[in-house]
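Bench log. Compound arrived from synthesis this morning; before running ITC I wanted a structural hypothesis for how adenosine monophosphate sits in the protein. Inputs:
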Amino acid sequence: MELEQKVKQTLKKINLNKKEKILVALSGGKDSAVTAHILKKFGFDIEGFHIDLGMGEYSKRCLVAVKKLCDNLGINLHIYNIKKEMGSSMCYIRSAIQTGQGKGLKNCAICGVIKKWIMNREARKLKVNKIATGHNLDDETQTFLMNILKGSPQLSANSGAITRNISDKKFITRIKPLFYTAEEDIKKYSKKMKLPVVYEKCPCLLDSYRKEVRHFTESLTKKEKENIMKNFDRLSDKIQKLKVEEKLNYCELCGEPSRKKICKMCQMVKR
Ligand code: AMP
Ligand code: ZN
C-alpha cells in the first residue's frame, strides 16, 4: 500500500529502531490513530498516551476512540487527565492565560505549548525513547509556509520527521512518521482500516492565520505539497545555519528543558 510504503521510507530515513520504546501521542483523531496502527503493524514497541483535555462531549468522544484503538491494537494506554492534574480544563486554562500573561496568543499556540510540556514530562517518567505524533504533510507544509510568511524560516530549523539539534537527557526526541503523508490519504486509510476515530475538528480551532494558510494549501495538489517539503529538506541544513546556537537550559520554575531561563509553559502560566 502506497501510504504504508511512504511511512516505511520515513522511518528508515530517521533510523527508527525496533528496540526503542515509542510513546504514541493519541488525540482521538485520524492522524495519530493511523500512526499507532502502522507502527504496530511494522512491529515497533509502542504504547499510547492521551491527554484528556476535559472539553465536554468532544473530549469524551476522543477518549472512547483512543481506548478502543489501544484495545484493538493490544497496547497499553496512559491517560493524563488535565482537570485532575492541573485543576481545570484546557478551555479554562487557555482563557486564563489569554486574559493574563498570554494576551494575544492564539488558542492553538497555547494548547500546543501545554501539550508538548505534558508529553515530554510524562514520556520521561515512562522512560520511553521517543514520542510519536500524527503531524502530516499538510500540517507541516502549513507550518513551514507560515514561518516563511512571518519572515522567520529559522523557526523551522528543528522541525522535520525527527526533532533535531537537541540532545539533552531530559528532552525526549519527537518523531512524525506521517511527515511526508498527505491528509487525504490518511483519511482514506483510516476509513479503509475502520479505525475508531473522531473525525470532527477540535472545537477550539480558531487560529485564523493557520486557517488562511490552510485555505491556500488546500488549493494545492499533493505533488505540490510534497515539492514544498522536498524543498524544505533541501533547505533545512541552510536553515540550521540561520539559527543562533542555543544551549538548552532547565527552566528555573519547573525544571523542564528550555531555551530560556523560564520555559514557555511557565511564562504563560506565570507560576
Ligand atoms: P494537533 O496539534 O491537534 O493537530 O495535534 C498534533 C498531534 O499532537 C496529534 O496528531 C497527536 O499526535 C498529538 N495530540 C494532539 N492532541 C492530543 C491529545 N489530546 N492527547 C495526546 N496527543 C495529542
Ligand atoms: Zn517551566
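What the model suggests: The longest strand covers residues 45-52. Strands lie at 21-25, 45-52, 77-81, 130-132, 173-175, 249-250, 257-258.
ITC booked for Thursday regardless.
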